[in-house]
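User: I'm putting together notes for a lab meeting next week and I want to include a structural view of one of the chains we've been expressing. I don't have a solved structure, so I'd like a prediction I can at least talk through. The sequence is below, exactly as it appears in our construct file.
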Amino acid sequence: MMDRIKQGMLAGMVLLGMRGCGSEEAVVWLHLKNVTAEMATLQVGLTLDGKPATKQYEFTQGLGEVAIKLQKEQLGQGQLSVSLYGLRADRCRVLSGKYEATVSADKPVVEVDVILTTLTQTQCPLTVEKTGDGSVTSYPAGLSCGTSCTLYAAVGTKVTLTATTATPFSGLFWEGCSGVNDTCEVTVTTAQKVGVQWGPEVRPKLVKVAKGSFTMGSPAAESGRGTDEFQHSVTLTTDFWMAESEVTQRQYRNLMGSNPSNSMGDDLPVENVSWFDAITYCNALSVKEKLTPCYQINGTTVGWAGGVKCTGYRLPTEAEWEYAANPATPPRTVYAGSDTVNGVAWIDANSGSTAHAVKTKTANGRGLYDLSGNVCEWVWDWYQATYEQLSSMDPIGSSTGTDRVIRGGARYFTAANARVAKRVYNAPLYRDGSIGIRFVRSNP
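Assistant: Thanks for the context. Below is the predicted structure for the 444-residue chain, given as structure tokens.
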């Protein structure tokens, strides 16, 4: 048998605690049975006295033999556990075996047969490759990421990955899975890779808004009601994600390289942006996260070929904005989250005429902040006074116009302007310290 070990190249050789060769070692020689033709690689994992080896060993030759050599002085209790997996050429596991025994210095050589059995479900690797400072965990559990990590899961398993970082004002995006915010989901079908990259924060987190129907506009008795707020039924047929707050000056600067705001502060909403600035930011964010930009921009001509079905970042339609500002279940509220303004909005009566950090008022019940007050927000639509004449299904405004719609009210406007039904409009090139950006993304 020792002659077999010396033949070497036909057998997988695993070395634990090796300092040299000779009589001061114990050898466990495993003869593997049921090695099939599709098995291209043998994976060997070792645990001694409950402590796993620092690496997993792999062999592509001599797949039927494994020699494990242990230094006698490092045996400890000698509780050895060996996990064996047979991998196909595509790296998926199809065979498994296990050997457990107490290795004793009194028995310098142990020779045993281990039968590999076919897995009832093929297990394929899901590898996470990281860029930047952070960690990734998984559900089902199994990932412990350094620079990269790999989880084996049965084909068909849905794995949820969660990324975290201790670095303040850091953002991340995923590649290779359906990722939003800190988590992404991937269903294992074959050997797959997912990338996660941390970097400077470039956008707010997203909140999912489920599709549905609502009554757009305001009731006739509502104080401050405009003549262009006729109530009518609207149905949105696509779920979408909305930024939980207005884009901050830090986020805008990190992506666009400049800050146009009048009132400066990293956590304040970016303002003094035109409608064109807003859609340019959306396209840049799509490119940053390797999504297809929604808008086709040629000077002052802007196309939106995919409509609400595009998967990049975009401005909300006027209907989407008002739908998200309202609660998920009736009754509607006058302001975004309340029938009283002070708890949910910065307006002229409570702001001191200064901008305030985002998310310092109460969210509206959907997890969305500052839809009322602080700064107004551009939406996609050309303004049309009789918007009730548009399609009741996914309305996106007129095809032409002179002014784009603005929603939400601002810190030096009255409470009437912070109502969820209030409609304002201006030329798309217009900039003002009262206007900022909130974006959406259709649910992929």
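A couple of points you could mention at the meeting. The helical segments are 2-7, 249-256, 275-288, 318-325. Residues 1-10, 17-22 have pLDDT under 50 and may be disordered.

User: Perfect, that's what I needed.
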